[in-house]
Specification:
mainly beta, 12-stranded antiparallel beta sheet, two-stranded antiparallel ribbon, globular, single chain
Length: 244
């Protein structure tokens, strides 16, 4: 759909891209304070045999690409259960440094912040909320730009429909369990992309809202079916575990 918020609004920019993608992200974590961790590792990605059905992408955009980064993270995690938290919080800062010295075809930096909070309102109801921010700067291939829309946040949009150097999004979700097996959720949120993080609050945000069904096939591990709505878009998601 092109780069930038305006480009994503035109159906003429819609492009089907096919590729062989391989990724490997090994990390090691060290706990240095209660619930607090330092993580380091690598992010390795290979993109081969890229093709598209329009001329939006240039031949250079479709060249085989190898990305390699050193990864450093700091994380505070007090969630009672990572896959389906009832209480606690998560705060993480992650920096990926893609460098030609590591064998990468492109040289750029990616910084990601994520904050999540969970409250158990009643024995059957949980209130959860999240803020997510990402900034990518440097010599960036189009597929490594910050992409808005996924099965985890900004549900209701095609993955990667909105791409740019920076994004900011937030969502709140109410989760209710009717019995040991069945439950439902409802969420509302919003997000934006821009050329820089300074511009994220200078234009109207994109909305996201929807409902979902939950089936617990084992205690606190759910199969989820979500129906999300966005600006002139909608999507259905069938996944295991909560969105966040």
């Amino acid at each position: 759909m092109g780069i930038g918020k305006q480009a994503a609004e035109f159906d003429s920019n819609k492009t089907l891209v096919e590729a062989q993608i391989l990724g490997f992200t090994p990390k090691v974590a060290y706990q240095f304070l209660p619930n607090t961790y330092f993580l380091f590792g690598a992010d390795i990605e290979s993109y081969r045999k890229l093709s598209s059905d329009t001329e939006v992408l240039t031949p250079r955009d479709l060249e085989n690409t190898f990305l390699s980064a050193a990864t450093v993270s700091v994380e505070y995690d007090s969630r009672d259960f990572e896959l389906n938290a009832y209480a606690g919080m998560l705060f993480s800062i992650n920096w990926n440094a893609y460098r030609t010295e590591f064998g990468s075809d492109f040289d750029f930096d990616e910084v990601t912040l994520n904050y999540r909070q969970y409250y158990k309102m009643t024995s059957d109801t949980v209130f959860a909320w999240e803020v997510y921010a990402q900034d990518v700067q440097g010599d960036i291939p189009w597929f490594a730009l910050s992409a808005l829309g996924s099965d985890k946040r900004m549900r209701g949009y095609y993955s990667g429909q909105y791409r740019d150097n920076s994004q900011l999004s937030s969502q709140v979700e109410l989760r209710h369990q009717f019995n040991l097996r069945h439950g439902m959720v409802a969420w509302v949120g919003g997000g934006n992309v821009a050329d820089s993080h300074q511009e994220l609050l200078h234009s109207q945000w994109l909305p996201t809202y929807g409902i979902g069904y939950r089936f617990a096939f084992k205690p606190r591990v759910n199969v989820r079916l979500d129906y999300g709505l966005g600006k002139n878009s909608q999507a259905v998601y069938f996944q295991i575990n909560e969105a966040f």
